[in-house]
Amino acid sequence: MIRTVPRSTWTPCRDAIRIAPSLLAADFGRLADAAAALQDSGAERLHIDVMDGVFVPNFTFGVDTVRALRRETSLPLELHLMIVAPDAHLRTFAEAGADGITVHYEACPHLHRTLTTIRSLDCRAGAAINPSTPAASLDDVLEICDLALVMTIDPGFGGQRLIERTLHKVRRVRDEITRQGVATEVEVDGGVEEENARACVDAGADVLVAGTAVFHHAAGPAAGVAALEAALA
Ligand code: DX5
Ligand code: ZN
């Protein structure tokens, strides 16, 4: 198993904005190639969207895919679980090689317990909110959260347009993190591209998830990462 970034040393973003390519936009028949193309691209982590056809109307990767990707890359694997009742699967995903696990507020009636469990599995814990969920929903878990994910699209599919109105929630979450004095990262996911990357960062995002902008870039995924970085320079 390749693991050159021990979980304990995968520190929150405070020095630079991080790009997290989403494999949802990669060729599913060539995931190993996709991971390899990103290895030295400047991407800081791989974002892996897990969907169950219930929480969102689509299916994607499962535990075996995570296990296979773990063998292919030393980049941290950040799982975004778009599934109902994730608690039953946390240990399985952690043992498959996840470095971080993000669950949805809307799927977790006992979110505090779920995040605590993720941390107990030696993974970074993330909490996500959909576009229709108020930012304040995360206020009382930020102190046990390594990452707050503000969805900038309705989850389930790549290639959608960023919903402008979600950016005020990014600002709201960022301000609350500052107010509480915690080290939680703010991540945005959905419709992030060169044209709006700066607005996401200005709103308070530390981590930009990007699927289409990276994997559909005409010059390949590494160029897609570079283009996003250039848009922020
Ligand atoms: C969608 C996923 C996103 C998706 C983003 O539910 O959570 O991570 O891959 O893809 P783009 O960047 O194409 O919007
Ligand atoms: Zn995602």
Question: How do the helices and strands line up, and which of them pair or pack?
Answer:
Layout: E1 18-21, H1 31-38, E2 46-51, H2 63-72, E3 77-82, H3 90-96, E4 100-104, H4 111-120, E5 124-129, E6 147-151, H5 167-180, E7 185-189, H6 194-203, E8 207-210, H7 212-215, H8 221-232
Parallel strand pairs: 1-8, 2-3, 3-4, 4-5, 5-6, 6-7, 7-8
The protein binds D-xylitol-5-phosphate and zinc ion.
D-xylitol-5-phosphate (DX5) is lined by residues 22, 24-25, 47, 49, 80, 153, 155-156, 158-160, 189-192, 209-213.
Structure, described:
The structure is a single chain. The termini are far apart. An eight-stranded parallel beta sheet has the order 1-8-7-6-5-4-3-2. The model has no long low-confidence stretch (mean pLDDT 95). It contains eight helices and eight strands. It is of the alpha/beta class and 233 residues long. It has helices at residues 31-38, 63-72, 90-96, 111-120, 167-180, 194-203, 212-215, 221-232; strands at residues 18-21, 46-51, 77-82, 100-104, 124-129, 147-151, 185-189, 207-210. Residues 22, 47, 49, 80, 189, 209 line the site of zinc ion.
